[in-house]
Amino acid sequence: MPADPLHSATNPPPHGSRSNAVEVRRSARRSRTVSAYREGDRTVVLIPDRMSEAEEQRWVTVMLDKLAAQESKRLFGDAELAERAQRLSAQYFGGRARPVSVRWVTNQNTRWGSCTPAEGSIRLSHRLQGMPEYVVDYVLVHELAHLLVPGHGPRFWQLLEAYPRTERARGYLEGVVAAERLPHPPGARGE
């Protein structure tokens, strides 16, 4: 697909989190790393004691998103992805796009998805896991359309017009790509 794109504190989790509460624990022994885990109905985020309140809030958001993405990977496997593709094909293409296989792959770091029409195979990058459902659906619809029209010509883009959130999903993916190009402050990647 082209580049279409601390003190202890209890805070409410962001939208989409399964946890009821967030507890932030500061540690003087922790110098640079941040970690998080689920403990019953609460999420515990461990951070260095020296972090500011603003850094704390940023890291809580990052870690909740990271946990949600990890949980999404466990809950949304290849079988569910194939079922989703069948549903989308029926909804947007009258069932005409019939993939033989649909699966997550970890070797696509520059593409969101790929399709081999001759084999009927669709592969989605693991980087999509944890993204909003409409984004995953867009990439699936994009790859399903390749089963009907192999290239990216006018007929291909006309097929994608059936999916109502195409532009929004493309914008989301473009934003992800742009954010990945930004310099990251020290420690932002667990350094």
Can you give a write-up of this model?
This protein is an alpha/beta fold and 191 residues long. The chain folds into 2 domains: 9-74, no CATH class; 78-181, Zincin-like (2-Layer Sandwich). The protein contains 5 helices and 7 strands. The protein has a 4-stranded mixed β-sheet with strand order 1-2-4-3, covered by helices on one side. Strands 5-7-6 form a 3-stranded mixed β-sheet. Strand 6 and strand 7 (121-125) form a beta hairpin. Helix 2 (78-93) crosses helix 3 (133-148) and helix 3 (133-148) crosses helix 5 (166-181). The longest helix is centred in the middle third of the chain and has 23 residues, at 53-75. It is elongated, with a radius of gyration of 20 Å. The protein starts with 8 loop residues before the first strand and ends in a 10-residue tail after the last helix.
Keywords:
alpha/beta; elongated; 41% helix; Zincin-like; UTP_pyrophosphatase-like; YgjP-like_metallopeptidase; three-stranded mixed sheet; 2 domains; M48 family metallopeptidase; disordered N terminus; 191 residues; four-stranded mixed sheet; 5 helices
- Based on DSSP secondary structure assignment, what is the total number of beta strands? 7
Proportion in helices: 40-55%
Our Rg estimate from Cα atoms comes to 20 Å
Count up the domains.
2
The residue ranges in which pLDDT falls below 50 over 5 or more consecutive positions are 1-19
Order of helices and strands: EEEEHHEEEHHH
Domain YgjP-like metallopeptidase: 88-173
InterPro entries: UTP_pyrophosphatase-like, YgjP-like_metallopeptidase
Protein name: M48 family metallopeptidase
Region (Disordered): 1-34
